[in-house]
Amino acid sequence: MSASSKLPPFDPADPLGVDDLLEPEDLAVRDTVRRWAADRVLPYVAEWYEKGELPGIRELAKELGALGALGMSLEGHGCAGASAVQYGLACLELEAADSGIRSLVSVQGSLAMYAIHRFGSEEQKREWLPRMAAGEVIGCFGLTEPDHGSDPASMRTYARRDGADWVLDGRKMWITNGSVAGVAVVWARTDDGIRGFVVPTDRPGFSAPEIRHKWSLRASVTSELVLDGVRLPADAMLPEATGLKGPLSCLSHARYGIVWGAMGAARASFEAALEYARSREQFGRAIGGFQLTQAKLADMAVELHKGILLAHHLGRRMDAGRLRPEQVSFGKLNNVREAIGICRTARTVLGANGISLEYPVMRHATNLESVLTYEGTVEMHQLVLGKALTGLDAFR
């Protein structure tokens, strides 16, 4: 028997055999989240996107909590304690449905819950994390401001002492989950530097008007946070976070999920293009039989599965405690940028049908325009890598 006869068949869905790197538990997590998304998101998401709403978000959050997808990689307090690779696989499957669903999970788990888990007191953890892990309480994360996105050190939101209390004034912008959140992790300037605060959203002076008229992430709740003399007790401050290292470490954890998630949007767009190319006929034959179409499909497949391999590598490094923030920047910069390229090429394969919501491609492409910018723009990640490569700081 020849060596070639022992080889497994080529799998267009996994051309590099990346599944061979996954443990049975990893595959079980991936398949569970994929089934949930196929049942609860895919049949409805085009309508949600067209209407610019995410109805039933609280019910969806509870279902995601029941799956163990909220605060998935955190330990204790009702969190699943999954591996970084398993969390990444979940992000990939969620974003293959829609970036807005993955954003709901990322902000809940990798930003709001992660901040409380890493920097909070035991009392704060006990009060919030079990309910957030179950999806009973939705969280949001207030860092970006109307005039300060990539430069959070210049934030204007201020927390002042008033007796034993803190009083917060300021505004945050582009906050996922804001208007449906029961708790907000808000970062503010104090006389002693930047600190984080756990803010119940029913406090007087807190409001979260929803941002409308978006052309991206339409199946997602996005809000402004307004803090007008919000009074908090002394123990509302996160005791272990001082300066920008706190919020930036949260962002790094969330960016890791994006490295995987972007490949989910790319995969869905590639699969739509591949299926279309096999069935769409022009000039008497399926367009998938033409050389130029095959070149597009091959290039998309190469970038898609290179990105998945990169995400997997970073996940293993995170599980080993060896993942650096610069490496997360590497992954986010590459994978989101390549995912957008895959979506745009897939759109050309579908021709005019590519702009229709009957297919997922344009929805994913427009969503990724937001993903490209949030949690670090292309330029910021280029500068992070540039500094790491040269040892020279070009930020200022």
TrEMBL record:
Q: Does the keyword Transit peptide apply?
A: yes
UniProtKB keywords: FAD, Flavoprotein, Oxidoreductase, Transit peptide
Residues annotated as domain Acyl-CoA dehydrogenase/oxidase N-terminal = 24-136
> Could you confirm whether the keyword Isomerase appears in this record?
no
Q: Name one Pfam family in it.
A: Acyl-CoA_dh_M
The similarity comment for this entry is: Belongs to the acyl-CoA dehydrogenase family.
Protein name from the UniProt record: Acyl-CoA dehydrogenase
The species this protein belongs to is Streptomyces minutiscleroticus
